Amino acid sequence: MDKRDLVIVIGKNSQLAQAIADYIERQDKTNSFQIHFFDRATLDLTSPSSLLLALNPYLLNRELYNSIVLVNTAAYTQVEKAEEEPQKALEVNATGVQNLVQIAQKNRLGILHISTDFVFDGEKRCPYTEEDTPHPLSVYGKSKLEGEKTLKPLQSEGMAMVIRTSWLYYHKAAHGNFLLTIADKLKKGTPLNVVNDQLGVPTNAYDLAEFIVLALKLFFKEGRFREPLLHFCNEGSATWYDYALAIATYLGLPSDILPVSSNEYPSRALRPHYSLMSTQLLKSVYNYHPRKWSEALAETILRLPGNEQKGEKRD
Ligand SMILES: NC(=O)c1ccc[n+]([C@@H]2O[C@H](COP(=O)([O-])OP(=O)(O)OC[C@H]3O[C@@H](n4cnc5c(N)ncnc54)[C@H](OP(=O)(O)O)[C@@H]3O)[C@@H](O)[C@H]2O)c1
Q1: What is the pTM of this model?
Q2: 140 is an active site residue
Q3: Which CATH number fits domain 4-177+203-235+277-291: 3.40.50.720, 3.40.50.1240, 3.40.50.150, 1.10.287.130?
């Protein structure tokens, strides 16, 4: 019997896992690997017994597969709430990842893990590279950095890759996101105050999903990840205010949006004022050239309920 490669996506209901599922369904008809998605109810990162229960059917039949890669999209992502419950954030974002690493080391599995631009403090004035030293400001950022560190032993063998991304959005977001919140308020005509002194890049989860599938295929072909750590975001830069204005423009709605400074906006978590990340390595090593954030956003807005008929989509 021919052996297959296997991908197990953890965090089935995350924006990113939804985008991976959509990308595979729409664009990847080659079926070169098997893929399974696990939600928190069937695979809880923080519970080693739940992890084993979910993964054992594959681990006990390891000889049926060539390579197995765990794609970890699951995380404690509530940046504000993490300030109140740092232990919970650490339990998922650091201990949970450590639990995965232990299973991966025992069973020779690869891990593709997602991290964040919030590991940086924003003191730089040119895009952060993979060489830059992280210095997170928030509990969420600190917990994600601790998670990154647990992957070091696997990274050194080419068996793990951490992808840092920024301001991720998708039109399917079980727990909401900036895009859906702003779109909803604009449709209701609610006046908005939006922060205009934090610079970053809104990143389309579908674009990241496309890259993840490319990186997985190369891993299966080459037997190791090309890079241990990689920055992925769409091209360009924006403040949250620019982002909100673009949402209004692409929705074709009048915008009653006031730019405000971070000081005027009540927030428990400190966020970097500057979190642009360089995509030089992505371009040179993977020959992947991300699209402009505004173009990617415009396409996703066409997928929001009520906007499907207004224009052409990419697929
Ligand atoms: N959103 C952003 O702006 C952003 C920016 C940069 C990086 N990232 C990173 O990108 C990745 C994907 O983010 P996202 O926005 O797509 O995530 P998301 O939509 O917020 O979803 C996170 C998922 O993680 C699951 N989860 C939480 N605790 C878990 C546990 N103990 N075991 C298993 N699953 C658990 C949640 O399950 P339930 O649905 O059951 O709650 C949820 O479905 C994360 O690593 C995040 O840190 C996100």
Answers
A1: 0.97
A2: yes
A3: 3.40.50.720
